[in-house]
Amino acid sequence: MDLVITNISGIVSGDIENPLSEGDTIVVRDGLIAEIGMGSEVNKDGIERHLDANGCMLTPGLIDSHVHVVIGDYTPRQKTLGFIESCLHGGVTSMISAGEVHIPGRPKTASGLKALAIISAQSFDNARPAGVKVMGGGLILDPELTEQDFKEMAEAGVVHLGEIGLGTVTDWELAGKMVAWAHKYGMKVMMHVGGASIPGSNVIGADAVLTVKPDVASHLNGGPTAAPIQEVERIIAESEIALEVVQCGNMLALQNIAQMAHDQNVLDRMVLGTDMPSGTGVMPLGMLRTVASAASFSDISAQQAIAMASGNTAKVYELNRGVIAVGQEADLLLIDTPVGSPATDALGALEIGDLPGVAAVIIDGAVKVNVSRNTPPPVHKVDIPWMAAGGH
After folding, report:
1. Strand order, beta sheet including 133-135
2. Hey, what's the torsion of the CAs at 261, 267, 271, 273, to 10 degrees?
3. Per-residue pLDDT tens for 164-173?
4. What is the pLDDT at residue 176?
5. Residues with Cβ < 8 Å from 266, sequence gap 6 or more?
6. pTM over 0.85, yes/no
7. DSSP characters for 25-76?
8. Contact partners, residue 126, CB within 8 Å, separation at least 6
9. How far apart are CA 263 and CA 245, in angstroms?
10. What residue ranges do the domains of the chain occupy?
C-alpha cells in the first residue's frame, strides 16, 4: 500500500537511542517506509492517497510482547470474541504469543505441544485478525522434546518459545539445553519470572533464568506476583537478557523496575507487554496503559517508553518494524492530546498518566482505524479523504 502522511507535529522514532526524529511528512511505498522528512523535500510522485495528520504525532505501532492468544480472535480464558481487533483500537499492530496455554484441552505431550505450536504459528501467518500481526506458536516445553523436534518446528514456521515455566519442564539444566537447540534453529525464547500465575506454572527466580539463558525475562513485575527486586537486580547485572514488564502485574514493581532500568542505563533492554488475556482480564488499552505507567511512574520519558513498546521488542525478535526508518514496515500510529487533558501534546499526556487519543492506526501503509473507539477522542482529527468518500 502506498501512502503519504503530511502535517505531522512530531515523530517518535521507536529507536531508544534517538527516540525523536525530525520531519513532518512520511512516504510509504509498497507497505514500507520510503522517505521521512519535510513536505517540500520528499518525493510524493505517483501516490494518490494523502493523509493529513492535522498536527497529530506519529509513532510506531505498538508491539505487545506478551499475549496469551489461542487460535483466531477469541480468548477462552475470558470468553471474549474479537479481543485482538479491539486491541488494534488501542494502538497494537503486533502481538507475540507467550504460549497458547488457554486452549481447551491443551495437549500435555511432546507431540501434541509440537503440533499446537505449528498450527498456531501457521494459522496466524495465514490470517491476521483485523490486520494485526500475531506471532503465534509460542512453544510450551515438554521433557520429551528432542533437537529434531526443534528443527522440524523451525522448518514449519515456529520462531519462538513461549514462557518457559508454564509447562512441565522444571529441570533448568534440561531447559537450558532446549534453549540452546531453539537458538540453534533461530528461535527466540521467553521465560516466566516471579510467582506462579496459573495452575501448572512455577515460581522462578534469577538462578533459573541465568541457568536457562532465555532472550526475555518475562513479566518481572509479576504475572501477577512480582519477583523480589534483588532477583531483578541480578538479572540486570549478570546477563544481557531483555527485561519485560507488563500491565497485568504488580504496578508498584513496574515503577521500581522502570526506575532501576533508567538509573542503571539499561533502557535498551526494556520491553513492554500486557500478559493478557489473564485473570486480570482483556485489556484493549493495556499497551497504552503500560506505556503511560512507565512514563508517569518513573523518570523515563514518553518517547523512551514508546520505544520500549516498539523498537526494543522488534530488536529482540528481529522484526522489520517497530522503528520509523526507511525500509521498515509501515505499522504506524497517529496520536494526539486526549480531549480534556491538561497536557499540550500526546507525549505530555502519557507523562502525566493520561492515555492519548488514537487518531489513526496503520498497518503496512493501510489505514485500519480512523479514530479509535476505545481511547479518549483526540483533540485533532486526521483527514483521510478516500475513507470519507467511502473507500478503504
Report:
1. 62-67, 92-97, 133-135
2. 60
3. 998 899 999 9
4. 97
5. 236, 243
6. yes
7. EEEEETTEEEEEE-TTTS--TT---EEE-TT-EEEEPEEEEEE---SSSEET
8. none
9. 16
10. 3-60+323-388, 62-317
Instruction: Give dist(CA 120, CA 138) in Å, integer.
Output: 8
User: Does residue 268 contact residue 235 with C-beta atoms inside 8 Å?
Assistant: no
Output phi, psi for 210, to 5 deg: -70, -25
Report H helices in the chain: 83-88, 110-126, 147-155, 172-184, 206-212, 229-238, 251-263, 286-297, 302-308, 311-317, 346-351, 385-388
Q: Please report where in the chains the cell 513461549 appears, as a residue.
A: 162
Task: Annotate 117-129 with three-state secondary structure.
Answer: HHHHHHHHHHCCH
CATH architecture of structural domain 62-317: Alpha-Beta Barrel (3.20)
- Please write the tens of the pLDDT for every residue from 223-274: 778 989 999 999 999 999 999 999 999 999 999 999 999 999 999 999 999 9
Domain spanning 3-60+323-388: CATH superfamily: Urease, subunit C, domain 1 (2.30.40.10)
Give every CB contact of residue 128 below 8 A, 6+ residues apart in sequence: 134
